[in-house]
């Protein structure tokens, strides 16, 4: 993996991430394809959207159809027919979101399947083995995610556990790379560490220093945000966390978020984002546009012949009206999910492309101001 930082504009960064399945211009938004599929879309839709990388879920693919099955079928790329890059998460978020079915131990996580109740164990090494089978381009290490608010003792434990697991993960990954090299092969999977620490400056600094001292991770993620804290606290946490991370490595803000969150993250030096919001909100009738959000079920769109967004050139906006999308949603037509998801993802991908262009032109301050104003109610 290579990460070339092309230009900075204040703290905002534009770069290119070179992976085994193509280049990823940054900043970038990664559509979420939990089951190796972005809901309601297929790989041709994603190629039409020019998405260079999508996210898949380690926990879910381990349970169904199972990582060994995907390995036998050629890995995620051959299995899904999406030829570009995959990032896979570690299962740490599922341990957080399914906490009633999870037990934390010093060497990993025991959880019960949400499908059949069977028990499973994830260690730092096991999580990587699953992702090697998936053959993802970027693999996330196992971390201990904490919801907010949380006690200082719980956050301190989270940092200690995350650091311990990170050490196990980087050692194991280096061993796998050396084993591949000894066999005349090159391991193209890359590994990202995850900084924890809640919204506490001291904890974030401790976590970042612990992880950057362990070894040469390919990138660094900021986890444990957008889990209950106010937005302003999240932005303040990014203000003091991103400068703690290496300038020559990509920075990934996990599971965030709204269009404004993404602009605020880019302004603070974040390179990569993912969130279910564009596709989930699309299915629920919320459309993102350059002029604010639309509730497409509203009766005011019944006779509206305009596209969803006059500034958007996606397939949906080029071919269908608000009135038609309104009708499809109200009628419960399955085609609505695809058309609305295409548009919302196009909006998010256009947003980061426009931000990138502004950074390269030294105009990010203007872009930031215009974007925030357009998103305000």
From TrEMBL:
Pathway annotation from the record: tRNA modification; tRNA-queuosine biosynthesis
Residues that hold Zn(2+) according to the record: 312, 314, 317, 343
Cited InterPro entries: ArchSynthase1/Queuine_TRR, TGT, TGT-like_sf, tRNA_ribo_trans-like
Catalysed reaction, written as an equation: 7-aminomethyl-7-carbaguanine + guanosine(34) in tRNA = 7-aminomethyl-7-carbaguanosine(34) in tRNA + guanine
Pfam families linked: TGT
Superkingdom of source: Bacteria
Claim: Manganese is one of the keywords in the record: no
Cofactor: Zn(2+)
Domain tRNA-guanine(15) transglycosylase-like residues, every copy: 11-375
Active site feature: 89 (proton acceptor), 274 (nucleophile)
Gene3D superfamilies (alphabetical): Queuine tRNA-ribosyltransferase-like
Name used for this protein in its record: Queuine tRNA-ribosyltransferase
Organism, scientific name: Helicobacter ganmani
UniProt-recorded Gene Ontology molecular function terms: metal ion binding; tRNA-guanosine(34) queuine transglycosylase activity
Gene: tgt
Keyword Iron tagged: no
Binding residues for substrate: 89-93, 143, 196, 224
Any one cellular-component term (Gene Ontology): cytosol
Keywords: Glycosyltransferase, Metal-binding, Queuosine biosynthesis, Transferase, tRNA processing, Zinc
Class of this enzyme: transferase
Cofactor note: Binds 1 zinc ion per subunit.
EC number assigned by the record: 2.4.2.29
């Amino acid at each position: 993996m290579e990460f070339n930082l092309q230009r900075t504009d204040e703290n905002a960064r534009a770069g290119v991430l070179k992976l085994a399945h193509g280049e990823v211009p940054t900043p970038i938004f990664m559509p979420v394809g939990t089951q190796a599929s972005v809901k309601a879309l297929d790989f041709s839709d994603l190629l039409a959207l020019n998405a260079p990388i999508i996210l898949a879920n380690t926990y879910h693919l381990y349970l169904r159809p199972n990582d060994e099955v995907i390995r036998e079928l050629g890995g995620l790329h051959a299995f899904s027919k999406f030829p570009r890059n995959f990032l896979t998460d570690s299962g740490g978020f599922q341990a957080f979101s399914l906490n009633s079915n999870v037990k934390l131990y010093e060497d990993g996580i025991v959880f019960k399947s949400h499908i059949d109740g069977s028990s499973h164990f994830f260690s730092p090494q096991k999580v990587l083995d699953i992702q090697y089978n998936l053959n993802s381009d970027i693999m996330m290490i196992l971390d201990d995610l904490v919801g907010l608010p949380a006690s200082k003792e719980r956050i301190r434990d989270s940092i200690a556990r995350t650091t311990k697991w990170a050490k196990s993960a980087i050692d194991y990954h280096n061993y796998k790379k050396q084993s591949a090299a000894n066999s005349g092969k090159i391991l193209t999977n890359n590994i990202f560490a995850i900084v924890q620490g809640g919204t506490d400056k001291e904890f974030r600094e401790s976590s970042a220093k612990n992880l950057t001292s362990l070894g040469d991770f390919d990138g660094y993620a900021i986890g444990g945000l957008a889990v209950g804290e106010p937005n302003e606290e999240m932005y303040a946490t990014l203000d003091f966390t991103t400068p703690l991370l290496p300038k020559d490595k990509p920075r990934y803000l996990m599971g965030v978020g709204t269009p404004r969150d993404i602009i605020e993250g880019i302004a603070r030096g974040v390179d990569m984002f993912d969130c279910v919001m564009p596709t989930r909100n699309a299915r629920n009738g919320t459309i993102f546009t350059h002029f604010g959000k639309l509730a497409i079920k509203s009766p005011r769109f019944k006779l509206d012949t305009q596209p969803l967004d006059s500034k958007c050139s996606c397939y949906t906006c080029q071919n269908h009206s608000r009135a038609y999308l309104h009708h499809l949603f109200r009628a419960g037509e399955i085609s609505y999910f695809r058309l609305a998801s295409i548009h919302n993802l196009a909006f998010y991908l256009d947003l980061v492309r426009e931000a990138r262009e502004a950074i390269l032109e030294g105009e990010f301050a203007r872009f930031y101001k215009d974007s925030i104003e357009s998103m305000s109610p």
